[in-house]
Design a protein that fits this description.
- A hairpin with a 2-residue loop joins β2 and β3 (35-40).
- Helix content is 34%, strand content 14%.
- The model is unreliable at 257-273 (pLDDT under 50).
- The longest helix is centred in the last third of the chain and has 16 residues, at 210-225.
- The radius of gyration is 21 Å and the shape is globular.
- The strands form 3 sheets. A 5-stranded mixed beta sheet has the order 1-2-3-5-4. A 3-stranded antiparallel beta sheet has the order 8-10-9. Strands 6-7 form a two-stranded parallel sheet.
- The chain is an alpha+beta fold.
- The structure holds iron/sulfur cluster.
- Iron/sulfur cluster binds at residues 76, 151-152, 156-157, 159, 161, 181, 184-185, 187-188.
């Protein structure tokens, strides 16, 4: 049997698309014939000897924790560790290696090659939810779009979102990786649940002057660019969780619902519920 006959259609498609070296997520795959040398794109120009050599079987463990030792609930988050190199001797091992780093990523990229891609749209996805996640059905399309910006932006996830809700475009190919997101992930669903619960809370109004909003926005943007240490991505209950900060930023951007001029004209009311 010819070696390529046993390869999955997904990896064959990927290699047909990238006959030379290529980038997948945050991984640079250097190609030398049938041999692939994988490393973080941050290490693309570093000599292999200066990197820690890992076997293909070691990549799953690598992908579980970020550089600060925090668990990565979302393997497509843009915080894959650098400083390693892995040799995959052949396309089969390459697929295995990429699957350790981005579970299901090659298959999903392949599945999304057709038009339209086989997605599960938000409304269909939450329509199937029961129990504690059912509340995510209550979000309006505008509120879902806020959760998308807070949860699926390039600072949080490299997957190209192909599912959507009315009025929201799917991610464009030039802003994200080749790895397709075909339905909301567990972390997104938790963020949507949290947003729906917050929407049910009583609104507290803070008397703020208009320029205060710029201060708040700048402070929150700063926190998103420099996430607080020790805050787990999956801990949506933590006030410094990046997705929670993103949700608050979205509220600040709402006009006039989140921030409206006070009758006196000098103050604004910030709804924080
Ligand atoms: S739902 Fe959003 S955060 Fe989750 S994998 Fe898809 S794009 Fe990424």
């Amino acid at each position: 049997m010819h070696p390529s006959a046993s390869l999955s259609p997904a990896i064959r498609w990927l290699l047909d698309r990238h006959p030379d070296s290529f980038v997948f997520g945050q991984v640079y795959a250097g190609r030398d014939g049938d041999r692939f040398c994988l490393r973080s794109i941050a290490d693309r120009d570093r000599p292999a000897e200066s990197l820690q050599e890992l076997p293909v079987s070691g990549l799953r463990q690598l992908a579980q924790f970020d550089g600060r030792g925090e668990f990565r609930p979302l393997r497509s988050a843009p915080d894959l560790r650098s400083g390693w190199v892995c040799i995959a001797p052949g396309a089969e091992q390459l697929e295995l290696a990429l699957d350790q780093l981005y579970p299901g990523g090659v298959v999903d990229a392949w599945a999304a090659r057709v038009d339209p891609p086989p997605v599960t749209q938000y409304r269909d996805f939450v329509g199937r939810q029961t129990g504690m996640y059912r509340v995510a059905q209550n979000l309006t399309d505008a509120e879902v779009s806020e959760v998308i910006r807070a949860s699926c932006g390039v600072r949080q996830c490299l997957k190209r979102r192909r599912w959507t809700v009315d009025g929201v475009r799917e991610d464009s190919p030039d802003t994200k990786s080749d790895i397709a997101c075909l339905e909301p992930c567990a972390l997104f669903l938790e963020c949507a649940r949290r947003a729906a619960r917050l929407a049910q809370e009583a609104t507290a109004s803070l008397g703020l002057v208009e320029p205060d909003r710029a201060v708040l926005e700048a402070a929150l943007e700063q926190l998103l660019s420099n996430p607080a240490p020790g805050v787990r991505a999956g801990d949506l209950g933590h006030p410094l969780n990046p997705r929670r900060i993103g949700l608050l930023l979205e509220k600040l951007h709402r006009k006039p619902a989140g921030l409206s001029s006070a009758p006196s004209g000098s103050q604004t009311q910030l709804g924080t519920g």
